[in-house]
Amino acid sequence: MNININTSFKAIIFDMVGVLIFEKEDYKKDLDIEQVEQEFNHIDDNLLVSDLKSKYQYSDEKINEIMKKIPSKYGKFDDLFNLLSKLKEKYKLAVINNGTAMTITYFKERFEFNKYFDIFVNSTEVGIRKPDPKIYLLSANKLGVLPSECIYIDDVIENVKVASSLGMISIYWNSKLPKVENLKRLLQIVNLS
Q: How many CB atoms lie within 10 A of CB 111?
């Protein structure tokens, strides 16, 4: 990837799961959590709830209980989180997440996203899912920057390609590489290494 280090980036946009947070190594599989997460391809939380009720016979109370538990499955990528304050001094920071809005409050509390990120764009809240180009453009617009002034990081290659086609410098966070190797690539681009 050829990168012009002189380009003045103004924002870094992160994917959530697979970049900022990862399933904990000591996570013990919870069937309820696994079943609910399999249904996270919805763009409408009302449809999600309806499907969970019909497919698994969950009550509203059970669904809420599971949604509260889901963030405990994940842990921070500490090396990246330790750099967020420093990155925030130079760049606007954002998250784009495909997932239900029903867990967002719990993720934000557990990982203190409001402390680090200027915006958090969730697919069900805005009615657009990655890799739809509109979600990247919406995020850049909310940050008050042009797509060409953004660095975008995701562990799904299709999402990275779409962001790149919009003019964003995109980093494929390759899950086959050690997390630290992916982080080094980001640090080289932002000149923070």
A: 20
DSSP assignment of 8-40 equals: ---EEEEETBTTTEEE-TTPPP-HHHHHHHHTT
What is the C-alpha to C-alpha distance for residues 74 and 25, in angstroms, rounded to an integer?
Answer: 9
Q: Are 160 and 21 in contact (CB under 8 A)?
A: no
Q: Dump pLDDT digits (tens) for 58-88.
A: 999 999 999 999 999 999 999 999 999 999 9
E strand map for 55-126 = 74-76, 92-97, 119-122
Q: What is the pTM of this model?
A: 0.93
- 59 dihedral zone (left: phi>0; alpha: psi -120 to 50; beta): beta
